[in-house]
Write a structure and sequence with these properties.
The protein starts with a strand and ends with a strand. It has 3 helices and 14 strands. It has about 210 residues and is of the alpha/beta class. The chain has a 10-stranded mixed beta sheet. Strands 8-13-10-11 form a 4-stranded antiparallel beta sheet, with no helix packed on it. The protein has helices spanning about 30-40, 75-85, 100-115; strands spanning about 1-5, 25-30, 45-50, 65, 90-95, 120-125, 130-135, 140, 150-155, 155-165, 170-175, 185, 190-200, 200-205. It has 2 domains: about 1-125, Thiamin pyrophosphokinase, catalytic domain (Rossmann fold, 3-Layer(aba) Sandwich); about 135-205, Jelly Rolls. Strand 5, helix 3 and strand 6 (about 120-125) form a beta-alpha-beta unit. About 15% of the residues lie in helices and about 35% in strands.
């Protein structure tokens, strides 16, 4: 099952191609309800402490409300991810959560690493940026609206990094967490191939503002 989680923050909806279909599970995390609404999506579940949502606004019937305490260990986005996993999601797309407070952004990126270890396919995007996490794995990036892509090492050393179909190719390269040099690459054709033999890294697609 696929799950879509709409969280807070600014989104650039014209550049978000990821859309729920059919029976996909749709969860809004607190103020992410507004982003879902802006995308023309109706959440099945609205979850959070509602510190970012005006509760005086009437909600459509049929939305399940799950209110949690404001003082808690997990962020609303983390709780939404846990709920999606409990519901049986094997693939998760998070919309929003990549701007504003840096601590929240880093927390959201950490979710990608955590879910990768559980073999859950996950991507997060706000339209200006889109990120995923790879460990001992590869991915094909399709040119679909993002100009740049970067590979950011999460481990102290990431080995056997090969990148093809791009302006700055790599062949069995070694990346270091303290020397992030694989930044601002560009696809030169229709797609680029990224392969990592050993280690974990974030792959971030982005545009200038």
């Amino acid at each position: 099952m696929k799950a879509f989680i709409y969280t807070g923050g600014t989104i650039h909806k014209k550049n978000i191609s990821e859309r729920p279909e059919g029976d996909d599970l749709i969860i809004a995390a607190d103020g992410g309800y507004h982003n879902a609404k802006a995308m023309g999506v109706m959440p099945r579940i609205l979850l959070g402490d509602f510190d970012s949502l005006d509760r005086t606004e009437p909600l459509p019937e049929g939305i399940e409300l799950l209110q949690v305490p404001a003082e808690k260990d997990d962020t609303d986005t983390q709780l939404a991810v846990k709920l999606a996993l409990e519901k049986g999601a094997k693939s998760i797309t998070i919309i929003g959560g990549l701007d504003g407070r840096l601590d929240h952004t880093l927390s959201n990126l950490a979710i990608l690493e955590e879910l990768s270890a559980k073999h859950i396919s996950v991507v997060i995007t706000n339209g200006q940026n889109r990120a995923r996490f790879l460990r001992d794995n590869g991915v094909i990036l399709i040119r679909d609206g993002f100009r740049y892509f970067s590979i950011l090492a999460a481990d102290p050393v990431v080995k056997g990094v090969t990148v093809e179909g791009c302006k700055y190719p790599l062949k069995k390269a070694k990346l270091s967490r303290t020397n992030q040099y694989a930044v601002s690459n560009e696809i030169v054709g229709n797609c680029a191939l990224i392969e990592i033999k050993k280690g974990g890294a974030w792959v971030v697609e982005s545009n200038d503002k």
